[in-house]
Amino acid sequence: MLSVDTREPTMDTAQARALDALDARAVFGSTMEELARQYEDLRVVVSDYGRRLELGKLQAQHPDMVVQCGIAEQNQIEIASALANEGSLVFVASYAPFITARVLDQIRVNLGMMKSPVILVGLGGGFSSGELGTSHMGLEDIADLRAIPGISVIAPSDNAQLSLVLKDLAQHPRPCYVRITTGHDAIAASSEGTRFDFGKARTLKAFDTGKPHSVAILATGTLAGSALRAAHQLTDQSINVCVAEVATIKPLDTAAIASLTHGVRLIVTVEEHSIIGGLGGAVAEYLAGIPAGAPLLRLGVPDTYLEADVQEHLLERCGLTADGIAQAINAALVKQSAPSLR
């Protein structure tokens, strides 16, 4: 292995904005090229989807670093695990539903039981590939992998954070699933730049001081930007709201959640995933083990399969736009305030 910078990954504002203007697949490819200059044992194991990941430069410069398995995701996991067990730094990429549900047994045995330090990358999470049909919608992937012991689950909020996550995992290889969704409202990089802290939630909007704390919104993935816009709408209606981006879903930052949700009227989770088993499920499990507090509103994809459509339309149908999120929160607050009929 070459000399590696072991500091926590950070990125300045200009770099972050440049990456956020690109397609997530291009960011994955360019980050792999960058890592190849640091890690001579890098291996990117792909299925047929690999041709869409803009790995052409990497493959031309380092043919041995890209391992093409064809449309055989089960074999893809087995090959990746063998390489990782022999000391290679291994990233494995494919469509989110294919690199999770289709290969769940191989992941369970190799990454869970054998603890092979393989980094799974699921592209097209949520409705990103919704126009290709239900089979290509990644709506259960977080739930699938969150249940396997020893596997971390991360859902970056934008391309800049995606690149930082991949670099962090290169420095600290471990069984992990990185979930990539696309589109929505990018979170503007601050003047201080962008950083990624594994296992830590990030506050995007704090409560206004001197006012009762009303709503705590916990969002993951690229919907964090929509949740932030919804919060600003609610603030304009004199509702005191905070927003935290939860990139690391497992392990969950329970300390931050406890702090942010203390004394609020309503806790809200927002995700482009089934309302069962994702961020909402993880937060519900945590809240179930502490003294009763505010109710939890889980905003996500309902427990059904939707027909093929573009991402924008599918999100609108699920109420996962800034307007839809704000309306759902308003409705929940009104319901809280209504007199009981008992």
Description:
The strands form three sheets. The protein has a seven-stranded mixed beta sheet with strand order 3-2-4-5-7-6-12, with helices on both faces. Strands 9-11-10-13-14 form a five-stranded mixed beta sheet, with helices on both faces. It has a two-stranded antiparallel ribbon with strand order 1-8. Helix 4 runs parallel beside helix 5 and helix 8 crosses helix 12. Helix content is 36%, strand content 19%. By secondary structure, it is of the alpha/beta class. The longest helix has 16 residues. The chain is globular, with a radius of gyration of 20 Å. It folds into two domains: 170 residues, Thiamin diphosphate (ThDP)-binding fold, Pyr/PP domains (Rossmann fold), CATH 3.40.50.970; 139 residues, 3-Layer(aba) Sandwich (Rossmann fold), CATH 3.40.50.920. It contains twelve helices and 14 strands.
Topology:
Layout: E1 10-11, H1 13-20, H2 24-36, E2 42-46, H3 56-61, E3 66-68, H4 73-85, E4 89-95, H5 104-113, E5 118-123, H6 141-146, E6 152-154, H7 159-171, E7 176-179, E8 194-195, E9 202-205, E10 215-219, H8 223-236, E11 241-245, E12 248-250, H9 254-261, E13 266-274, H10 279-288, E14 296-301, H11 311-317, H12 322-337
Parallel strand pairs: 2-3, 2-4, 4-5, 5-7, 6-7, 10-11, 10-13, 13-14
Antiparallel strand pairs: 1-8, 6-12, 9-11
List keywords for this structure.
single chain; 342 residues; alpha/beta; Rossmann fold; 2 domains; seven-stranded mixed β-sheet; five-stranded mixed β-sheet; 14 strands; globular; disordered N terminus
Named CATH topology of the largest domain = Rossmann fold
Head-to-tail CA distance between termini: 68 Å
Shape: globular
The overall average pLDDT, rounded, is 92
Question: Percent of residues in beta strands?
Answer: 15-25%
Strands of the widest sheet, in order across it, are: 3-2-4-5-7-6-12
Strands, count: 14
Total number of helices: 12
CATH class category label of the largest domain: Alpha Beta
CATH architecture name of the largest domain: 3-Layer(aba) Sandwich
The CATH superfamily of the largest domain turns out to be: Thiamin diphosphate (ThDP)-binding fold, Pyr/PP domains
Radius of gyration: 20 Å
- Helicity, as a percent range: 25-40%
Name the structural class.
alpha/beta
Largest sheet: 7 strands, mixed
Number of domains: 2
